[in-house]
């Protein structure tokens, strides 16, 4: 017998494992300077935190995608390469980057899930030592199937990346192609990114000059570094539960698309009111030949009258949407695809926390695509909703679902 909840569909499609230009200035050949005591600290991207209800995702609006600089264009001497690696506690990823953030005896409460999800966002974001200071920046989206404008850049950078990996400890080198197919751990991804910075691979960036965070994402984009949605969600689930992939019933990281979860012990959540932190949302492809999507829930609640009024005043929701009935808000974490037309961009998408809204009376959803523009439709994120699934692993007793 087929189970449905409102508009949820039941055919499940795998998430393809692949994704989206830019270029790098010539690498300087002078010897690296000795390490400095410290870098000045720049203002980082907003740190991952639990945003106020109905305030949208936690990252700023994506800047406009510029035209890439041709690699053959003369760019003059580099003013920032090479530069010293970070020293002391800032060298490399956090020591706890591969560890769960709760003790084995601590119940996996909603708060424990949220702490783990906050920490994972922070760990995937660096921080990185640069010539302009220490900055945190979430990684861009990356799948195996890349946009044409990225594919040529990644192929051209492949030999350089292999050379740089010789400076990375073996234990932090992702197995197989996980590093460039969106499945690296935070420690693997941030260590390789920092090594690229330390060895003079930061691009100068297209004109006008871009912020250091954008230059780091541009570099990662060129070298094929980033995270896809299924890669991020499985890392989040393992981080919070403290399980290995095998212990969670997951396949090898490079082959796990988080489909068919019910066959692996996960339970379908029967009501949107019962969705909780740590639940995995599976979305099907919006059209034939396109990719599905996976997210992990940070929290959900029914918006108060004051929240709905604030969203209308801010222009994120329309008066007609919120007045039609109760509105339920879902904050969800993932790595989000980003493109402008048929070209991928490093300056939007990637690891973010976003908010989806659903009107309980009409069944209509509203969501953002990384900026302030809100879309509305019968499915979340314009993808068929396959279902919400909860793992069988340690969890405290469930609270009562919030009523509309």
Order of helices and strands: HEEHHHHHEEEHHEEEEEEE
Beta strand %: 5-15%
Strand order of the largest sheet: 3-12-4-5-6-9-10-11
- Count, helices: 8
Whole-number average pLDDT? 76
User: How far is the N terminus from the C terminus?
Assistant: 28 Å
Q: Main beta sheet: strand number and arrangement?
A: 8 strands, antiparallel
Class computed from helices, strands and strand pairing: alpha+beta
Shape: globular
Helix content: 10-25%
Radius of gyration: 21 Å
Q: Outline the low-pLDDT stretches.
A: 1-100
- Number of β-strand runs: 12
Description:
The protein starts with 109 loop residues before the first helix and ends in a 14-residue tail after the last strand. A hairpin with a 5-residue loop joins strand 9 and strand 10 (365-368). The longest helix is centred in the middle third of the chain and has 18 residues, at 148-165. Helix 1 (110-124) packs across helix 5. It is globular and about 55 Å long. The chain contains 8 helices and 12 strands. The chain has an 8-stranded antiparallel β-sheet with strand order 3-12-4-5-6-9-10-11. A two-stranded antiparallel ribbon has the order 1-2. The model is unreliable at 1-100 (pLDDT under 50). It has helices spanning 110-124, 148-165, 186-198, 212-223, 229-241, 245-248, 305-313, 319-323; strands spanning 128-130, 133-135, 267-268, 280-283, 293-302, 327-336, 339-340, 343-344, 350-359, 365-368, 374-377, 385-390. The chain is α+β, with helices and mostly antiparallel strands and 404 residues long.
């Amino acid at each position: 017998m087929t189970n449905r909840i409102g508009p949820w569909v039941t055919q499940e499609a795998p998430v393809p494992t692949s994704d989206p230009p830019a270029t790098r200035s010539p690498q300087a050949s002078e010897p690296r300077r000795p390490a400095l005591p410290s870098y000045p600290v720049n203002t980082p991207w907003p740190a991952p935190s639990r945003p106020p209800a109905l305030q949208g995702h936690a990252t700023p609006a994506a800047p406009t995608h510029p035209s890439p600089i041709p690699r053959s264009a003369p760019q003059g001497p580099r003013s920032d390469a090479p530069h010293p690696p970070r020293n002391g506690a800032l060298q490399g990823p956090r020591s706890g980057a591969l560890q769960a953030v709760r003790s084995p005896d601590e119940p996996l409460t909603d708060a424990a899930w949220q702490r783990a999800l906050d920490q994972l966002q922070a760990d995937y974001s660096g921080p990185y030592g640069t010539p302009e200071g220490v900055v945190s920046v979430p990684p861009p989206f990356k799948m195996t199937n890349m946009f044409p404008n990225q594919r040529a850049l990644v192929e051209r950078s492949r030999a350089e990346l292999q050379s740089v990996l010789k400076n990375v400890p073996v234990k932090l080198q992702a197995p197989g192609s996980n590093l460039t197919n969106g499945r690296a751990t935070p420690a693997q991804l941030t260590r390789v990114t920092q090594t690229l910075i330390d060895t003079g691979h930061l691009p100068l960036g297209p004109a006008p000059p871009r912020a250091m965070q954008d230059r780091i994402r541009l570099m990662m984009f060129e070298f094929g570094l980033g995270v896809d949605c299924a890669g991020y969600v499985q890392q989040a689930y393992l981080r919070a539960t403290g399980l290995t992939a095998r212990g969670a019933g997951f396949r090898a990281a490079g082959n796990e698309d988080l489909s068919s979860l019910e066959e692996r012990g996960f339970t379908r959540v029967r009501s949107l009111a019962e969705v909780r932190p740590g639940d995995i949302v599976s979305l099907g492809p919006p059209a034939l030949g396109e990719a599905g999507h996976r997210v992990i829930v940070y929290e959900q609640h029914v918006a108060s009258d004051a929240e709905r009024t604030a969203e209308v005043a801010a222009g994120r929701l329309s008066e007609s949407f919120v007045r039609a009935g109760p509105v339920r808000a879902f904050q969800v974490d993932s790595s989000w695809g980003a493109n402008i037309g048929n070209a991928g961009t490093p300056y939007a998408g990637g690891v973010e926390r976003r908010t989806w809204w659903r009107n309980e009376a009409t069944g209509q959803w509203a969501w953002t695509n990384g900026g302030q523009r809100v879309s509305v439709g019968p499915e979340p994120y314009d993808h068929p909703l396959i279902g919400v699934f909860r793992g069988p692993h340690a969890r405290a007793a469930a609270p009562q679902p919030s009523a509309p």
